[in-house]
Write a structure and sequence with these properties.
Layout: E1 2-4, E2 26-29, E3 36-43, E4 46-53, E5 61-63
Antiparallel strand pairs: 1-5, 2-3, 3-4
Protein name: CYTH domain-containing protein
InterPro entries: CYTH-like_dom_sf (IPR033469), CYTH_domain (IPR023577), NeuTTM/CthTTM-like (IPR012042)
Organism: Psychroflexus sediminis
């Protein structure tokens, strides 16, 4: 699977009125290999494990 890397800078406070829920999240990284990222996120009673590979040459895509 390819992940498309998109990031946006929000410079206005207007988005806050659209938010409907807040939650605490714990995040950690579990790998020692520079060619991939292994991340765990825990929110409430659920955990999410994500493994991401190196970005492709363009920097816009990477294996996930």
């Amino acid at each position: 699977m390819l992940e498309i890397e998109l990031k946006f800078l929000v410079s206005s406070e207007a988005f806050k009125k659209e938010a409907f829920k807040a939650s605490n999240m714990a995040q950690g990284f579990l790998n020692s290999n520079e060619s991939r990222c292994v991340r765990i996120r825990i929110t409430g009673d659920k955990g999410f494990l994500t493994i991401k590979g190196e970005s492709l040459a363009s920097g816009l895509f990477r294996l996930e």
